[in-house]
Amino acid sequence: MEPLSFQEYISSLDPATLPRILRICSGVYFQGSVYEVSGNECCLSTGDLLKVMAVTLQKVICEDTATGQTTELPLTFKGEQGCPVSARTQWVPSCQVRPLQPMGVQPYCPTGLFQPTPALGPCPTVRRPFLESSRQECLMLHQVLEQWNGQPQPLLCPTISPHALLLHPVYEVHAVMHLRRDVVKIPSTLEVDVEDVTEEAQHVHFARPLLLSEVLGMEEALPVQAEILEGPAGPAIFKSAWVPRLQRGQWLQLHGRSHTWRVLASAPGSGRHFLLSSAYQGRFRRRPRQFSGVQELAASLRPGRQLHVVVTQDCEGQGDDVPPLGVGDRLEARGVQGNGPGTRLLCYRHDEEEEGEELLLPLDLGGGFVEEVCDSKKYRLEELLERQPLPCEVRVVAPDPGLDRDALGTLPALRLEARLDQPFLVGSFCEEPDEGFEIPPRWLDFSVLLSEGPVHPPAPCNRHSRVEELTEAFYYQLLAQLPGGLAPPPPRPPKPAQAGTGLAGSHPSASRPPVPNTPLASARLAPPLPPLPALPRPSTPSQYGQRRPSRDAGEAPSASQAPAPPQGMNSADNDYETVDDNMQKTISKMQTIFPF
C-alpha cells in the first residue's frame, strides 16, 4: 500500500483487524532531549516497526470551515453543556436567506445533533425546513464517529456554529516496539508517514527487555540465557570479582532461584562487612561480648534471659546507694526497673566469701564489663542462630573447607547482626558455566534480553557466593532498610561531674594554686600540648613551692625580689624550675583556644 499519514491511517483503521504492523516511512524527531511528552512518544525513526495493539479515542477537534477556528469537543459532548459560551447565544445566519417559518416562531435548534450538509453553496447555513424534515437523520457525536469512513465530512450543528463543520478525531495508539520495555503511546496527530507491512512481517519478533527483578518471578521460563542490555546503575554493593563483569553485551546463564538465606555480619575494629550464606560450612564459637557501661549492658538484655558479666574496670560508687565496683566482680544482670531519669539496672553481685547482694545501678554509670561465657562448642551457622539471638559476637574457629581462601578465618571476631531473607538468582557467565554466583535482583537490578528456545545447562558451583564482602556505603544503606533500623544504641547520658577534678600533670609533692571556677575547669581536659622549649634556669635559686611575685613584662628582677634559700639547703639540691608569669599567660591562652 501507499504510505499514508499516521492520522489518515488510524482514522480509517478497523479495530477488528488488530494487531497491525506498520513501518515508519518518514520519521520525526522532537527538538529536545526527551523522547516522550506527557507520556506519549514524540520521536520515531525512519524504518522503525510498530505493532499496533489498541486504539483509543482521546478527543475530537471541530473546525469551522468559514472562519477556520477550531474547538475541542469532549467525548461526552451533548450540546449546551459542552459547547463554548458564544455558541449558546442566539445566532443569525450570515447568508441573505431567511428561514421559512411562521411569524413570531423562533427557529428550532436540536441540542448537540449533527446533520450532513446539503449541497454546498456559497454559504452553507442551517435552515429550518432542513432541520424539520430531517430530524430523523440527526446524529449524536458518538454516532457520527461510529459512521466515520476516514475522510472528514461537512456537518451542521447549530449549537456550535451556523457554518459547516469538519470533525477531526484524535486517537491514542498503543503499540509495541523492538527493545522497549513498556507499551508505547503515540498520538495519531504525530506527523509521520506509515506503511502497513502486516502480511510481510509476520515473522518479526518484537523483543521486550526485562529487568532482572522481573525474571526472578518467571520461574517457569528458567533456566534461560540472557544478554545484558544495560549494566547495573549506581555504586557497587559487592567487592567480588564477578560484579565488574556485568557490562552491556555480556551473556549470562540464569539457572533459577536460590533457596538460601543470608546473615549480615561485620568485623569490629576492621571496618569490613560481609554477607554470609546459609550454605557456609565453617564453624563458629561464641565470643564474650564487651560493654563499656551500664547503658550498653541494659540494652543487651533479652526478655527471659539473664546476662552474667565480669567487671573489667574499676568504677567509683555514687554515695550510699551505689557501692563501688572492682575488677573481677561477678554480676548477674536481671532486668531494668523504673522509667525516665530514675531508671536502674537490677544486678546481683556474687561473692565467694560472703553472701551476695542486689544492686541498682544507674544507667549513666561507667565502667567496663565482659560477658561470662562457658560454652566452648563449635556451631554451624544454622545451629548458632537457633541458640543465640542476634546480634551476637562469634569467632570462626574452622574455616569453610570448600573455599580456597576464607576471609572470615583470619578475623579475631565477627559480629552477626541480622538474618536476611532476600531472594537471590543463581547465574553464571556463558563462557564459564561451572563457576556460579548469586545475584540479589532487588539490590543489583539491570536490564536483560532473554534468548529464545529452551536451555538445559548443568548446575554451577556457587561456593564463591557463600561469603560476599560488602562495600561500606551499601552496608550502612542496608542497615537503614532493615526492619527495626538496627541503629546503634542511644548515647550514654553524661557522667556526673566529679568534685575535686583539677588539671593533671603536676608534681605530686608540689603545691599549685587553685584553678579558678571557670567553664573551662568543668570541661574535658585538652590533649597534651606539644613540649614547650626549655626555659633558662634562673640565676637566683627559688624556694620549692613558692612563686615569685609578678612583675611587668620586660622588667628585670632585682636582687631584693629574689627569695633567699632556706638555711641549710644548697642551691644545687633544688632541681625545680620556676614558671614565670609570661608562661602562665601562654598556658591560659592555649586553654582558651582549645576548650576541650
Automatic annotation (TrEMBL):
Organism whose genome encodes this protein: Anhinga anhinga
Composition-biased stretches (Pro residues): 486-496, 527-539
GO annotations of cellular component type: cytoplasm; nucleus
Domain annotation CABIT: ranges: 18-79, 222-448
Stated name of the protein: THMS2 protein
Pfam families linked: CABIT (PF12736)
Domain of life: Eukaryota
Ranges where the record places region Disordered: 484-584
GO biological process: T cell receptor signaling pathway
Family listed: Belongs to the themis family.
Transmembrane segments: none
